[in-house]
Write a structure and sequence with these properties.
The protein is of the alpha+beta class. 25% of the residues lie in helices and 22% in strands. It folds into two domains: 4-115, N-terminal domain of MutM-like DNA repair proteins, CATH 3.20.190; 134-227, Helicase, Ruva Protein, domain 3, CATH 1.10.8.
């Protein structure tokens, strides 16, 4: 599933392509991604809307429209926003000037929504926000008795972090993913907050991780998969201690870590 760095990468590419353009019409090839509104009503409401900006909230793309309404897109597991179509295109946004923006989704887990005002999304604070300090992280985690890995994946607690970057941040911080979230020391909360910020910013710099379905709006893979330190590296040597990276299941997700380096 595209996580915060991938969604931010797409936002940065799509914004100059659509900013100031008017949605002249929508072609709905498969209506299953449209949620909370009938496809026919969606087509009527979106036609003629001018795009002013795209905001990102966690893993959501918020298209700000001149009317004060919002087109909101969540890519789900296999969703893509593309300048050129692929074989999984479900929705085509026709734009003024002859441009098109394609929404593709092989497994139909993505969501397209329409709001008459700024959308109220039940999401936790952004991990890259200026006020997301280690003290804020401690405040959130110290109330939780479950494992720190699973807490990081709770979007209502902290928004935008998914499985890949939870694994990577915990490795950089030297914290075992099965540790209880409320049992970390202040020093460990500090290390973890810094590691989360560092890994997300680095992943944005390298345009995301193409572990499976993700490609950017140009159909190109990201580059951060070449810099992963534990995720997907079961049985391979740890870059830090040369021990072996192991994989366990947690919350129906693959969890990768170094037993020697992460305590």
């Amino acid at each position: 599933m595209p996580e915060l760095p991938e969604v931010e990468t797409i936002r940065r590419e799509v914004l100059p392509y659509v900013k100031g353009k008017t949605i002249t019409g929508v072609e709905i090839i498969d209506p299953r991604n449209i949620k909370g509104i009938s496809p026919s009503v969606f087509k009527k409401k979106i036609a003629g809307q001018k795009i002013l900006d795209i905001e990102r909230k966690a893993k959501y793309q918020l298209f700000k429209l001149a009317s004060g309404k919002y087109l909101v897109i969540h890519l789900g597991m296999t969703g893509r926003l593309l300048f050129e179509p692929d074989k999984y295109v479900k929705i085509v946004f026709n734009l003024s000037g002859g441009k098109k923006l394609f929404f593709s989704d092989a497994r139909i887990f993505g969501r397209i929504l329409f709001f008459d005002s700024y959308p109220k999304l039940e999401l936790g604070p952004e991990p890259l926000a200026a006020d997301f300090t280690w003290q804020k992280l401690k405040e959130l985690l110290s109330k939780r008795k479950t494992s720190v890995k699973l807490v990081l994946l709770d979007q209502k607690l902290i928004s935008g972090i998914g499985n890949i970057y939870a694994n990577e941040a915990l490795f950089r911080a030297g914290i075992h993913p099965q540790r209880k979230a409320n049992q970390l020391s202040d020093a460990e909360y500090k290390k973890l907050q810094q590691a989360i910020r560092e890994v997300l910013l680095e992943a944005i710099k390298y345009r995301g991780t193409s572990d499976n379905w993700y490609v950017d709006a140009k159909g190109q893979k990201g580059g951060f998969q070449e810099r992963l330190r534990v995720y997907g590296r079961k049985g391979e040597p740890c870059y830090r201690c040369k021990g072996k990276v192991v994989r366990i299941g947690m919350g129906q997700r693959g969890t990768f870590f170094c037993p020697k380096c992460q305590k």
